[in-house]
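Proteins fold reproducibly. Look at a concrete instance:
___
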Amino acid sequence: MLHRLWLWFGRWLGKLLLLLLVVGLSAWGIGTAYYSWKFSGPVSSEEQIPPGEAALTQGIIEDAIRVVEQHRDNTRVLRDAHAKAHGCVRAHVTVLSDLDSSLRHGVFSEPGKTWQAWVRLSNGNAYPQFDRARDARGMALKLLDVPGEKLLNSPAHTSEQDFVMFNHPAFFVRDVAEYKSNFAAQAEGKKALAFFPDWDPRNWEIRHLIIALKTLAPAPHSPVATTYNSIAPFKLGPHNIKYRVIPTPESCPGYALPTPNKDLPNFLRSALYQQLSLDRTPACFALQIQRQNPSYYMPIEDPSVEWDESIAPFETVAKIELPAQDFDSREQNLFCDNLSFNPWHSLPEHRPIGGINRLRKAVYGAVRVYRQERNRQSAAK
């Protein structure tokens, strides 16, 4: 009797697993076919601003300030994202001497030119947490003494060109409307509603949830050992492009970082300090661009879509070196905290485009002003 019961249960369980496998494969096939149809070209090579974007942006600014206040330190107001820095370090950015003439625009207009720069390496969360926590990782690059009129009329940033990146090639929202819904849910502590705003499955953002989970990756051994992406598109003269920074250790003296102790809360800062300050070994990267081909599905207004590298390969335009240096001092850490990075600190030749970049223009500026004013008030007490 018991033997027959186990056989029946085994056959039932086998059929159930087979059914689940068939349903899963069918769903995967249907999803692949759907997105292959949905994400097919051609696309516009111009920005397309939806109605109501300005009102949504104002709401996001209010939510961002709420997040800043929720995560403030005892004495300082932190950034609304990428609050924890691993360090701000000096860098040299050298344009390729043989750069293709079609890419010689803005800060890349003079082959062989070397720019002095600051690089800020960070975690993505709005609240400082242990480095071993799954998180986005960011790189912000600020070129100094860049002549020419900038897009923002800000006296403090008239000679700067900024590039802002993080370590995933796609963003987890498609536009400002979705960002408003997603960010509001997170600001209210309702993270489950960020991708499932209601009970209607048609409004669920499962693909974007998968992107977010991939973005929240385990920490690398060092902040100089991962790739950073612009995600959103930009101009490069007449071209629409995305850019990224990739490690090129072969361009620097050979170096093997000691195995980090990932139980330490700040092991990424320690790894950076070990390489640049103790072992006096530089870190090297390549700055690359990817040109939009509007005949294929490479949209400007949807940064959740990764541009196909097999159709539009990345091209190196400059080399970045972080030389050996001392950077982990109280004075420099405070300087780092006060540095402001914004992709709109930019020459017109590098103008940010697309909805997420239009959102950044408003939100970054408003949060920076609020944060720095609150910190000045705290310092004066």
About this structure: The chain has one domain: 50-380. Helices lie at 2-38, 53-70, 176-187, 206-215, 267-278, 330-338, 355-380.
